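pinging the channel bc i need a second pair of eyes. not urgent but kinda urgent?? the chain im working w is below, pasted from the shared doc
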Amino acid sequence: SRAIGLAAATLAATLGAVVVSVVTLLPLTVAGSVNARLFPIAGANLQVARRLAGGRLQGRTLVLYTRAHPLALREAAVIAYNLRQLGAELEIKAFATPVLYEKLNTPCEPWDLTGTLIWLDDNPDPYNFLGPLFASPPGADSAYVTGFADRNWLRRLRAADRLRGRARTEALGRLEVELMRDHVPVAPVLATKGLR
């Protein structure tokens, strides 16, 4: 399976030692952003992680693709440790950054999770932020690396993009909150503490 949303939520709940804030995906500088604070973190919380996982990770082996970089590999080791606390094993596969993005963008590539990927808001438009991550089909020029494929949500995202003005930005903001509340295809983080 592609990005396991449940695992992303679980990791968000357990990576408290590294992560300071998890809110929603759209940065607050992007029009339509809602500060929903769906996954506030005040430190690692194994009880919350187990509740979010609901036993669905027990006995599973997940595959994590990450960058072949010392910091990314240390992050992967933390993720592997956290998943073991929830009964899952993690197979870590590291690649040079261009190869990683190519593999993440390849249909049927067998990954479940990725390490940290940087996605910045270079434009204050919410569709400019969400569209490439979730609505563009995989391909050589695509930023589509999330593996998210809920056709109903994607149809509504494209319909919201066709709206105008405030109705458009508010509709896109609501869809982003729904995405992160109901599907959690990614775990947005603001990392301000280093891995030690």
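so Residues 1-7, 16-21, 191-196 have pLDDT under 50 and may be disordered. and Strands lie at 19-21, 61-67, 89-95, 113-114, 190-191. — does that match what u expected or am i reading it wrong
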